[in-house]
Amino acid sequence: MSAPITHYPGQLIMSDAQDMPEVSLDHIELNERPLIVCDVDEVVLEFLTPFRGFIQSQGYELLARSFKLHGNVVHAGTSEVLREDIVDDLLEAFFIAQGDWQFPATGVSEALTALSDHADIVFLTAMAPRHETLRRALLDRFGLHYPLVATEGAKGPVVQRLHRLRKQPVVFVDDILRNLRSVREHVPDCLIIHIMANAHFRVFLPPLDAGMTSAADWPEAARMIQAHFRV
Fold first, then answer.
1. Measured between alpha carbons, how far is 171 from 192 in angstroms, rounded to an integer?
2. Beta-strand pair 35-38/60-62
3. Is the pTM of this model over 0.85?
4. Mean pLDDT of 183-196
5. What percent of the residues of the chain are helix, what percent strand, and what percent coil, each to the nearest 5?
6. What is the pLDDT of residues 195-228, one digit of tens each?
7. 160-173 burial string, b = 16+ CB within 10 Å, else e?
8. pLDDT at 20
9. Are 23 and 126 in contact (CB under 8 A)?
10. CA-to-CA distance for 21 and 41, rounded, in angstroms?
11. pLDDT at residue 166, as a whole number
């Protein structure tokens, strides 16, 4: 007999920000087994390295001198810092062209394949839903067929609604501290793992909160998750 499945027909998730659009979980089906929720950029897909290559093709440079984009994108040759709105426009253009630039983080495909034998996996990407179709196609190209949810809002409420009151273990993997904190606030029993593909920017990461853990790469993250699941 197959395991029971949790459906989310027509359910809408509101972000913490009142001006964020509703996020649908219609397409998510969870079995009665552990849940792994993963961010995408810098976690499942390389982001900073491809983004640096993309803006170099536009005549700009990304400097690794703090844990942020704004203030670190400069004109090549002059080092003049770009205005925030120009950086935002570059990000928008990059996400439109993501299929030509982004690629999986080292070891992620093998790790998620092994973990999927024991857990359901959902991708929760910090991205405007208008780019979700392009992201879905890119992930599928690399064989990463796990369900995808795109939101610009807080991630904690989404993970909370996904997990609900299920008794199975839940894991959240992300590279941004505010997202880790959001999930910790809304799902206190969640295993919180930080992972970041780009080593140059990872050194500027603020200290993690107590109870959060950091993985150097996906093989290490997989071992942490398997230990949490006791498999």
1. 6
2. unpaired
3. yes
4. 97
5. 35, 20, 45
6. 999 999 999 999 999 999 999 999 999 999 999 9
7. bbbbeeeeebbbbb
8. 52
9. no
10. 21
11. 86
Q: How far apart are CA 14 and CA 119, in angstroms?
A: 25
- 149, with CB counted inside 10 A (0-12, 13-18, 19+), is buried
pLDDT for position 145: 97
Q: Is 71 helix (H, G, I), strand (E, B) or coil?
A: coil
Residue 174, strand partner residues = 194
Asked whether residue 133 carries a pLDDT value surpassing 60, the answer given is yes
Tokens of 60: 């700009």
- Residue 139 CB-density burial (10 A; 0-12 exposed, 13-18 middle, 19+ buried): buried
Walk me through the domains of the chain, giving residue ranges and CATH numbers: 5-45+103-229 (3.40.50.1000), 48-100 (no CATH)
Please give the single-letter amino acid code of residue 51: F
Phi and psi at residue 179, to the nearest 5°: -70, -40
Length of the chain: 231
The pLDDT of 71-100, averaged and rounded, is 95
* pLDDT higher than threshold 90 for residue 1: no
Instruction: Determine contact, residues 127/23, Cβ cutoff 8 Å.
Output: no
